[in-house]
Structure formats: C-alpha cells, structure tokens
C-alpha cells in the first residue's frame, strides 16, 4: 500500500491542461522530492491531494483510501504555498485555534510540544506578524503536524531561506520522518537542498511523470559515464550489450543510452559504425545532477518551481 497514489490525474485551468494522466507512487516512510519546471503543476498536484480542489479526471488514494473530491484526508497535514496564520495572534494561539477546530485532547500541551519540536518554544507568545520567513515556515510545519498526520505535504518549504535556516528546516523534516515515521511529499526548485534529504524523486513533465527514481538510482545515473544518442536506440543497446558484456547499459529518454564501466568512447563509436548505426552524439558525462534533472524536466525554462 502506498502512502500516496494517483492514477490518471488530470486538471485544467481555462482550457489549459496542467496535469494530464499523472501517476504518482509515494511509498510509506519515504521523503519524496517532487520536481518540475515553473507552472508544471506541482502546487496543483499538492492541492488536489490535500483536498483543496477537485480533479477533472483520475483518482487519488491516500494510505489506501480513495479520496472524495475536496474532502481532506484526516491523516494528511499540509503546508502549501504560504503558511496560513493569523498575523495578530501569537504562534501558540495560531496553533491553539487549529487544535480546537480539530478537537484535540489536551490541545495546549500538544501545541507547546510542537513549538518545541520546530524550534519556536521561545517565540510562542510573539505575534506572527513579527516573524521572519524562516519562523513562519517553522510555524507552518507545526500547523501541518497538528493531529499527528502520517503524510506531510510541503510545497517549497525551503524557498527564500538563508542557508542556516534551510539546514534547520531540512533537519526538522528528516527528524519527523525518522522519529515519527511521517511520509513526506516535498516540492522545491532547490535541487541541492532536496538531494540532502530525499529518498525518492518524481519528475513532472508535460503534465505527467517523466520518471520516478530512488536516491540510489539518481546517484548511479549521475556517476561518470558515456552518453550515446542515436536514431536507433534499441539496436544500439543490443549491439553494445553484445560487444561490451561487462558494461552496464541503460536506456534513457530521447534515444539516449548510458554506459557505465571502463569503456573507451572510440571503441563505442567503432562498434556502432560496424553495425551501421549513426551516432548523433557521444559524450562523457561528469555527473552533473542539475543537468540530469533539467534534462528529465524537458529543458531549462527557468527555475524549477511553480
């Protein structure tokens, strides 16, 4: 059973298709990094999962339960876009307001414990209108954690934070995952931040999912290797597999092949030429993670945020 699963998810705005057959699979206990270009549909996906808007097509399951449109799942906490809080109330009172709506037992103790968890115990009585961006993000996460959710949706929680605060927020996310077993579904355009915490990545492209990769698979894909692009990728894969049985070959999008192992580029070129397979590109990759993800997203149209 997945913590989050979408099947054929579709959503349009003013006749513009934002999501088109999106299939996401988030395993329980994962920290799932959701990556895509500007306007790719990351925030829209999170709003659909959080029950904040209805989908036009497809279905969403959370912890095995089929979601009813616009009805939040009781085991899901969310911080989407800007944290929702009352500027003239203190951090504690903001938490208390939501805790009372949720009907939590011993609400004050629970709220004080959450302020301690997110590092706001000393600022609990301060009005939130005086909070810095980092403090607002911490409180937003605390609000999302009320009710002890099993699944946490975080939309750009690291956006605009200075390095020290970003590190603290990352540590908080990892601690919630490890100590409480919370499944985290997080989007961010800061790839260097995500790669420090994520166990799985989903890459959004053209309204659907271009790839779902574990952290280990990303590490392997970004290791030093040869990249070959031809117009006949299946034939090239078969020919090179036969010629270099000890090499590890993987088919990539856009008719590319990845070759791991101590293989000389000239030998690869010669082997393909002997088979009459034209080479469009042959290069050695030095393991650029950003380039890898940008390629999966379909090119560089600006920061990968929404």
UniProtKB/TrEMBL annotation:
The keyword Nucleotide-binding applies. One of its GO terms (molecular function) is ATP binding. PROSITE patterns: ABC_TRANSPORTER_1 (PS00211), ABC_TRANSPORTER_2 (PS50893). It comes from the Bacteria. Keywords: ATP-binding, Nucleotide-binding, Transport. The keyword ATP-binding applies. InterPro entries: AAA+_ATPase, ABC_transporter-like_ATP-bd, ABC_transporter-like_CS, P-loop_NTPase. SUPFAM superfamilies: P-loop containing nucleoside triphosphate hydrolases. Residues 4-231 form the ABC transporter domain. Belongs to the ABC transporter superfamily. PANTHER family: ABC TRANSPORTER, ATP-BINDING PROTEIN (PTHR43335:SF8). This is ATP-binding cassette domain-containing protein.
